[in-house]
Amino acid sequence: MSKTFLVADIGGTNTNLALARHDGKTIELVFKERYSTQDERSLLEPVQRFLKAASSLGFSEAIDFCCVSGAGPVQADETIQLTNAPWSISASELSALLGVPVRLINDFTALSYAVTLLNYKNEAEITRLPHLDGSLGEPADGLMLIVGAGTGLGVGFVDRHGKSVTAYPSEGGHSELPCFDALSHYFSEWLSERYGYPAGAELAISGQGIANIFEFVCTEKLDARMIAAEYGIPQPGSGSGLGSGLDAGLEASLDAGPSELSKGILKTPRTAWPAAIAANSRTDAHCALTMELFVRLYALKAANLVSILLPRGGVWLAGGISSKNETWLLENHRFMRWFEKNYAPHIREFLSKTPVLIVKNYDISLLGAAEAAHQFSEHG
């Protein structure tokens, strides 16, 4: 029997709402809308506008259940205080508005449900990252790790055995930032001084993290010769070092300070920095260094989490940053060169066989919320 669910994915940037039909096997998102999280004061107002818009287009069937995934911890199954937005989500208020049961889940719990629905061989939805030996690995039953750099850094994991699926919440994005060389240690100290606490991974591996790295490399007096030696001076068209679009003058470019382009980026709203940095990372030394350090830290953090969980079902990179910057992760095995680093031989061996996949389906969180709604409505 088909059921209709109202599902929502609330992040620091976007609020996505959809009507989902679930027949027990397949999910269809029959109507969806996107709103700006920062422009809203609560979830109730966009939900009311959404339902009115859906009704005007003929989508007026009764809702059986509502599931909301939010970027923040779930408190007593009742509220989610959004990590990167100034409002919270209340299950009881939403249930009173809709007249149906409402379940709140962490956004990466939704992603955890969602990845179990994906075909990892579908290139329209998934990009598989080759290991250094060229192998891709095959996801197996067992734990699957989901790591996603977006507005913040989310972490989740799900245990899949056949048709049995159990998703677990996590706040792993707020765990420690991995440091591996003089530059990353200096950056970590810079973050600690700014925030007054040991640096967390989200402060570097996210959209806000890219902005933090960029401000750091643009405003601190760095040892340009050391950076050029540790990060490699690229040759035109080589695909090595910081990026094939840069010339061999990395050391001189860094020593001279930020370019006019980088100075211009610093004058724009901070939320616009990540896209501008990525767009200019082939031609500007400070943008390129920002993206290089970001990818290395991302890979090392994912590898750290793998060593804890041993996810034989693979590492699934969600969040918009990975999918929008595939080339930066793939080129010259940039991500994998750092993902496979570990002092312990048996962990290096495990990492070298762990599948790593970029999720490109932007509806994945809504699909995950719909699958969670199905599970909760059927089994409680």
From TrEMBL:
Pfam families the UniProt entry points to: Glucokinase
Top-level division of the source organism's lineage: Bacteria
Presence of the UniProt keyword Kinase in the record: yes
Enzyme Commission number(s) from the entry: 2.7.1.2
Species the sequence originates in: uncultured spirochete
Family, as annotated: Belongs to the bacterial glucokinase family.
Biological-process GO terms, alphabetical: glycolytic process
GO MF annotations, alphabetized: ATP binding; D-glucose binding; glucokinase activity
Keyword Kinase: yes
Record's protein name: Putative Glucokinase
Keyword field: Kinase, Transferase
